[in-house]
Amino acid sequence: MRGLICAAIALQLTRPGAFNERAPATYKATFETSKGVFVVEVHRAWAPLGADRFFNLVKNGFYDDCRFFRVVDSVLVQTGIHGDPKVQAAWAAATIPDDPRKESNRRGTLTLASAGADTRSTQFFINLTDNGRVLDRQRLAPIGRVISGLDVVDALYSGYGEGPPRGSGADQSQIRSEGNAYLFTRFPKLDFIKRTSIS
Q1: With 0-12 CB in 10 A as exposed, 13-18 as middle and 19+ as buried, what is 191?
Q2: Is the pLDDT of residue 117 over 50?
Q3: For residue 169, what pLDDT is reported?
Q4: C-alpha–C-alpha distance, residues 154 and 193, integer Å
Q5: Closest by alpha carbon to 67, among 34, 90, 91?
Q6: How far is CA 147 from CA 18, 32, 115, 168, 180, in A?
Q7: How far is CA 36 from CA 5, 30, 124, 143, 154, in A?
């Protein structure tokens, strides 16, 4: 029975077009992780398109079982590649336009990750320091901030460091193609998200 439920959820997550609910003006996203719980308060006024996308992903359980695959000590932590390659592949083209940046990438802020203009999809990072001098110039728009549990975020396993080509940590292209199976084998100490909820 559990396998059927998991299969149904995975099927739902392969339909990005259905993830189009408008987020409340302000909401809280709770992340239960392998290290503890942290809560993010999201403000739609900061970046409405990003806040809407994040709301839908959190509400529908997209981030459940996602690994924090990029943890750079005192810089940032990043996650948001789904552990099932079929699910992640469905989101490859489901990008959203950039929001104008209204807030700075200060310590504790959460920002959707980008590979260039208008490429935000499912990945996000949390700033562990004030990264505004670099990231604000790249027009990366925070959508919210951690209001409790920042110590949990600070404690996420960082032993693998940055990924290729600058480091020997997890390779994002391999995560997308092989999912959590690749991470279980090569990077077993990574912390992960157990479940998320909206309030």
Answers
A1: buried
A2: yes
A3: 97
A4: 14
A5: 34
A6: 29, 14, 27, 32, 29
A7: 26, 11, 18, 22, 11
The confidence band for 178, taking pLDDT boundaries of 50, 70 and 90, is: very high
Cβ-based neighbours of 164, under 8 Å, separated by 6 or more:
171
The Cβ-side half-sphere exposure at 59, using a 13 Å CA radius, reads 16
Q: Cα(90)–Cα(81) distance, rounded to whole angstroms?
A: 12
Look up the pTM and report it.
0.95
Nearest-CA neighbor of 61 among 43, 84, 77? Answer: 84
What does the pLDDT look like over 125-166, one tens digit per residue?
Answer: 999 999 999 999 999 999 999 999 999 999 999 999 999 999
* Among the four given CATH numbers 2.30.30.100, 2.40.100.10, 3.40.50.720, 2.40.50.100, the one describing domain 2-198: 2.40.100.10
- Asked if 69 and 182 count as a contact pair (C-beta separation under 8 A), the reply is no
pLDDT, tens digit (0-9, with 9 covering 90-100), for 22-70: 999 999 999 999 999 999 999 999 999 999 999 999 999 999 999 999 9
What residue spans define the domains of the chain?
A: 2-198
